[in-house]
Every structure is written in C-alpha cells, then in structure tokens.
Write a structure and sequence with these properties.
387 residues, Purple Acid Phosphatase, chain A, domain 2, 19 strands, single chain, alpha/beta, 23% strand, 6-stranded mixed sheet
Length: 387
C-alpha cells in the first residue's frame, strides 16, 4: 500500500506577519497532485491541521477545500488532531466525513479502534492517536501518573491489543502527535512540557509497521519505521536549513518499508545573515539571498542608523532584525548598585543610551536628556510645595 505522510499544516498561521494562506493553498494543490500522480492509496495527516483552536474563516475554507478535493480522488484520508487543534471542534461531523473516505480521529478513547483499509495483500489497520494532553486524558487510560510517556504507552497498549486480535498478516500504521526522544526541534513548535518531561522514547511505538509522527517541523527519521514528515512550510527562521517535504511510504505485503521524500513548494528561501551592516550590503557572496526572506543579525559595535531601511534596499524581504554588537564583555562581578553608586542622573541616562546603541549621546542628545531630567525635577518640586 502506498501511503502519503504529512502533518503540521498550521492553516491560518503567518510567518513574521507575512500572510501564508496563498502558500498553504499552493501546498494543498501540490498534495492533491502528488496523490493523483504517484497513485497514492492512503493519505495520513498527523495533527496540527490548524494553527489555533479557533482558526480564522479563511483557514477553515481552505481545510474544507482540501477535504473535498481529497474525497473527490476517492483516496482514503486519515487525520488526527494535534496540540494546536481543538479536538472537539475538529471532530465535528467525523461520522459523516468517514462516509466520504475522510477519517478523523480526535477522541482519545478510540485509539484502539482502527480505520481498516485494504489492498491486494489484505488489511492495513490505521490507528489514530490524537495529541494526548496528560492532565486531560490520564483518567481515560487509567494511569496513576499522567505523563506523556505513560499515556502514550497506555494508548499503544490498546493498539497492540487490538492488533493481536486481528488476522495474522494484518499490517499496521499509527498516527501520533508527540515529541519523541531524539527528534530535532525548532523554534516553531509549541512547548508541550508537563512536569519537566515532554519527550517519549521511540520504543513506545514498537509492534507496528509504520509510525507517522507529527509535531516537530523538521522532516526526519528516528528509525526505519518511525518518522516525522515535518511541516510543509517554514514558520520560523530556525527552519532555514529544513528541506520541506512529505514521506511517500510503500508498505509491503510483509510489512517492509520503502520511503521517499517528496519536496513541497516553498514561496521563498530563508536566509539568516550575520555581520556588520556595511558588509551585508556589499558582500557579493550574499547575492543568492537577495530574494529570500531574511533574518539579519547586525554585529556593528554601534547600532547603525536606519538599519532596516538600508537592508531592504538590497534584501527587500527582510523580516527580522537582531542587534548583537561585537563589544568587549562588561565586568560581571560588579553589582548594579555599585555601578550606579556616585553617578548623577545625567550620567546614568547617558550610560543607558550607550548600552542600547553602542555609542553615547552626542552634544544635542545630551542637551535633550538634561532638559528632560530638569523638567522631571521641576515637576517633583512643584508637587512637594505645600498649598
């Protein structure tokens, strides 16, 4: 059976205030075309379909369009809710959608009830494990300590128990939305730490032929049978080195796995540039990044004037500007009180300007500071005079 594994669409999410809806629509078109062109027999979406529990209307309309187009192909789709989704909202109408071949799994109590699909070699059982928030599902699974590992372990016990009752040779696929130990994270994933422990070992998924993971945004494999598809689009500059893709998985008649990455269309490349402003503007080696979305970290010892405006003359899609000046380290063992001791308000204000900008105020700016401080003092005197 040929399976297309994707996850973390995050419909409705922006990228540094850039509306990504057109890019998300282009991905959906790419997904549908891949299903048709590569003769996919089942699509699995491992959570975070939306970016938030109550998504904007445009995101809901795109989701609706995606479901209709997948249903029109006659290719079954299995989806689970992620930690960004509202499981209750996403699961509305799941019974009716199932009749159209779109199988939503959002109820933790149903993890041991698979979607059964068949090919020429027999049944494949697809088990959907939606994101399991330990504090909310501990009672469902009867665990004494509600942690990610214990609730996922209990969920997988139900999966293995159901699979053991099925005819010999029944193959199995698990969809799960979790942070599995060994996975590479980015700045884009919402923290799911509970009690200081967020990750679960990959061994918790032993006993099934393929585990289709969602949550981490980088496409990666944690073993031949345990993989993250990653998000189809970038959602932070920490994903600059990601290759955005889906997994095309061939599940053999004996459970053997053959997998291929299918690249996703990305509207622009991401570039993280670092250096002094003049160097970034003049370096010919940076020509390749002129059409990219850029995060620039400036190392000038003094904050340059109009840095963003000057950067965008060469890199018009600069979205983030960070100031990290190359300066000698300050004395760390001197307390804040000692640094201020014996200094006037004027000197303290001038030091603050130097700390923020990298250079102290000029004569005109010192005059502005002095006038502001004099005004504050005068106001204090007026308030203190008895009436």
């Amino acid at each position: 059976m040929r399976i297309l594994h994707t996850s973390d669409w995050h419909l409705g999410r922006t990228f540094h205030r850039v509306n990504m809806l057109d890019a998300q629509a282009a991905f959906i078109t790419h997904l549908v075309e891949t299903v048709r062109a590569r003769e996919v027999e089942a699509v699995v979406v491992s959570g975070d379909i939306y970016d938030r529990a109550v998504p904007p209307l445009a995101a809901v309309e795109l989701y609706d369009d995606a479901l209709h187009r997948l249903a029109d192909l006659g290719v079954p789709t299995v989806m689970i809710s992620g930690n960004h989704d509202s499981a209750r909202r996403l699961g509305v109408g799941s019974g009716l959608l199932g009749l159209a071949g779109v199988h939503l799994r959002t109820d933790p109590a149903s993890v041991g009830t698979p979607v059964l699909l068949s090919d020429d070699h027999g049944d494949v059982a697809f088990y959907g494990l939606p994101y399991l928030e330990p504090a909310l599902v501990g009672d469902v699974f009867g665990v004494e300590r509600a942690r990610h590992e214990t609730v996922l372990g209990a969920a997988m016990d139900r999966v293995r128990a159901d699979l053991a009752r099925r005819p010999a040779g029944t193959r199995s696929v698990v969809l799960a939305h979790a942070f599995v130990t060994g996975g590479r994270t980015s700045d884009s994933e919402r923290d799911i730490t509970v009690g200081g422990v967020a990750s679960v070992p990959a061994q918790v998924f032993d006993g099934v032929d393929y585990t289709a993971l969602g949550h981490l945004h980088g496409s990666q494999r944690l073993g031949e049978r345990v993989r993250y598809s990653g998000s189809p689009l970038p959602y932070s500059f920490s994903e600059a080195d990601h290759r955005k893709s889906m997994w095309l998985v061939d599940l053999g008649p004996d459970g053997a796995i053959a997998a291929e990455r299918v690249d996703c269309p990305v509207p622009r490349a991401l570039a993280r540039l670092r250096g002094r402003l003049a160097d970034l503007l003049d370096d010919p080696l940076l020509t390749a990044h002129e059409d990219a979305w850029v995060e620039a970290t400036l190392t000038d010892p003094v904050r340059p004037d109009d840095a963003m405006a000057r950067l965008t003359t060469r890199f018009p899609h600069t979205l983030a500007l960070v100031f990290a000046p190359d300066r000698p380290p300050r004395e760390r063992d001197v307390s804040y009180a000692r640094r201020l001791s014996g200094r006037t308000d004027q000197e303290i204000a001038e030091d603050f300007v130097a700390h923020v900008r990298g250079a102290g105020p000029d004569a005109r700016e010192r005059t502005v500071l002095r006038d502001a401080l004099d005004t504050v003092r005068a106001d204090d005197i007026v308030r203190e005079v008895p009436r």
